[in-house]
Amino acid sequence: MRDEVADEQLMECYRDGDAGAFDVLYRRHKGGLYRYLLRQCKQQSVAEELFQEVWSNLIRSRERYQPSAKFSTFLYQIAHNRLIDHLRMTPELALSLDAEDEDGNSPVQQIAADAAGQPERMAERKKLAATLAEHIATLPVLQRETFLLREEAGLSLEEIALATGVTPETAKSRLRYAVAKLREGLGGLR
Questions:
Q1: What is the pLDDT of residue 122?
Q2: Are the C-beta atoms of residues 99 and 106 closer than 8 Å to each other?
Q3: Mean pLDDT of 30-48
């Protein structure tokens, strides 16, 4: 029954003391939020730490929550601010999509493959996913963030603008440049 309740209503319920509402919100948004953080910082251990901090910040700020925007906008605004804080504290951080976790897996390897697909198609998809991930990693930070907020979080341009503290036109411009660079980089893969 709760699975049909809007995120904003669930957050209001959580704000008012319903801990079960938080569980539903967490289930709905944990995957997209984690992928967003991982693709931004490119280190699994850092992404996991930031992921926990974002949810902790959400818990601490629940009493101030007002549904003036979508819940996902609120959540990704917290994530954006936490990423900015992290980057300010570690400017020497070398960001690389090739970063591997403790088991030697890259983020690209974690992209789910079609189990029903043929081996050739699966290999082709894996190569395409790796190429796309490489091109996303080469985008300037602000363009990459805007692109990931659109694609991973499904935020609209207005919601991206709210989450990142820029005008909708700036968000639109960043997304347009990101998509153009990705199309240019992937042009030979048709």
A1: 62
A2: yes
A3: 90
Q: Which domains does the chain have, with CATH numbers?
A: 1-93 (1.10.1740.10), 116-190 (1.10.10.10)
User: Residue 142 is which amino acid?
Assistant: L
Classify 18 as helix, strand or coil: coil
Alpha helices, H only, the chain: 7-15, 19-41, 44-60, 71-89, 119-138, 141-151, 157-164, 168-186
Question: Which tokens go with 59?
Answer: 């818990």
Cα–Cα distance measured from residue 7 to residue 72, given in angstroms and rounded to the nearest whole number: 8
pLDDT higher than threshold 60 for residue 116: no
Which residue is it, tokens 């003036």?
68
Which tokens in the block code for residue 78? 């917290």
Q: Is the pTM of the predicted complex or chain greater than 0.70?
A: no
Residue 97: is its pLDDT beyond 80? Answer: no
At 116, the amino acid letter reads: A
CA distance 32 to 37: 9
**Torsion sign, CA atoms 72, 75, 78, 82:** negative
